[in-house]
Amino acid sequence: MSKYYDLGDRTLWNPSNGASRLFMSQVTTHQAEVGLPSGIGPMEADECQIDPVAFAAFVDALLAWYSETRHAVTETISEGFVATVLALAEIANIEVSWQGAKRAESLYLKTASDLHAKEWTGALEQKSRELVRHMAP
Predict the structure, then answer these.
(1) How many whole angstroms separate alpha carbon 65 and alpha carbon 53?
(2) Euclidean distance between CA atoms 102 and 119, whole angstroms
(3) What is the Cα–Cα distance from 18 to 20, expressed in whole angstroms?
């Protein structure tokens, strides 16, 4: 069994039940953190529709939220979900605005007292591109 994440009549992702269950629980959690609906509809009969406008807004808000998160544990917990959402956006041909994240990263690196501070946007972009190969139907 698997689930279908669709945009209109196009399937964007067809994960296993377990991966879908974990993803949807993270959707709920991160919607609350970001304060916006994700645009990912309810799962009905193993299918859900993605609203491209709401999803695009959620993706940008999620990336902005993530770029402002400097808590090591929160970053680690959220990184995989953020990369998955970015990959799903790429599959859906939704343009992601990286400018704000790159500005936040640059400012953080200039002002951080943390000796272990490092660039993260490039690594996140790479991780999401790698996921596209595993997610695309």
Answers:
(1) 18
(2) 9
(3) 5
CA distances from 109 to 52, 69, 106 (A): 33, 13, 5
Q: Which helix (H) or strand (E) holds 107?
A: helix 99-111
Cα 103 to chain centroid distance, Å, stands at: 19
DSSP tag of 49: E
- pLDDT single digits (tens) 13-58: 999 999 999 999 999 999 999 999 999 999 999 999 999 999 999 9
Tokens (6 digits) for 112? 């951080």
C-alpha distance from residue 40 to each of 18, 43, 121 (Å): 17, 9, 24
Q: How far apart are CA 13 and CA 5, in angstroms?
A: 5
Tally of CB atoms within 10 A around 100: 13
Mean pLDDT of all residues belonging to the chain: 88
Distance CA 48, CA 41 (A): 5
Instruction: Quote the CA–CA distance of 56 and 50 in Å, as a whole number.
Output: 10
